[in-house]
Amino acid sequence: MCATSPDPSTPRAPTAASGDASRPPGIVESSALLDAQGQLIIEHRGKRYQLRETRNGKLILTS
Questions:
Q1: Residues 6 or more apart whose Cβ sits within 8 Å of residue 30
Q2: Domain around 45
Q3: Contact predicate 44/63, CB 8 Å
Q4: What's the domain count of the chain?
Q5: Whole-structure pTM over 0.90, yes or no?
Q6: Cα-Cα-Cα-Cα dihedral sign, residues 16, 17, 20, 21
Q7: 23 band by pLDDT with thresholds 50, 70 and 90
């Protein structure tokens, strides 16, 4: 069986149905937000920010 990667141009919406009913509201797994390259562009008050995962698995938010 051959596994395929999701299309990186298709945005993934965060879902509450992550299988963990004990998770408090407002908490989202980073994998539900980051694209195949490990990044997310966030527009906030007219300015764009980049959230990306480092090689060490940490997150960095830059403007």
A1: 53, 59
A2: 38-62
A3: no
A4: 1
A5: no
A6: positive
A7: confident
